[in-house]
């Protein structure tokens, strides 16, 4: 595609989608994620039943805090670079063309970390289940629904 070619929905060039940085994690848990770049492609395409995000991470950045979802499946497809997948099974390197999947409610905390020298990119696809909560096994944080919004809480239920 040339730079002067304009696409119309249902197609789009991911470069045309706003880049969001970081996360909504409370301090200090946002620090290692604040340079993560995210393009919310599913929303840009009007998708409502599942989300699709394009994530780019420079060296030293992680995708999220290690977590698992109660009602949402997650699927990762590596596009470029190498990342360390950290889950309950330990650590392993994943690169372009490799995939990973995280079924809901397994309790298998996971995240990706860029310990390499170059930028890495991947697609993450997840369901949009309104009942979903998340648990973070390595830190004092959970996500629960309160009054229709997802909120970060300490594991004892007190708010951040």
Write the layout of secondary structure elements.
Layout: E1 20-21, E2 37-40, H1 41-44, E3 50-57, E4 68-69, E5 74-80, E6 83-87, E7 90-94, E8 99-102, E9 111-113, E10 120-127, E11 134-136, E12 141-146, E13 149-153
Antiparallel strand pairs: 1-2, 2-3, 3-10, 4-11, 5-8, 5-10, 6-7, 6-9, 11-12, 12-13
What would you say this structure looks like, in words?
The chain is mainly β. It has one domain: Jelly Rolls, CATH 2.60.120.10. It contains one helix and 13 strands. β12 and β13 form a beta hairpin. The longest helix is centred in the first third of the chain and has 4 residues. The model has no long low-confidence stretch (mean pLDDT 95).
In short:
This protein is an all-beta fold and 160 residues long.
Key structural traits:
about 160 residues; mainly beta; Jelly Rolls; 6-stranded antiparallel beta sheet; 4-stranded antiparallel beta sheet; 1 helix; about 40% strand
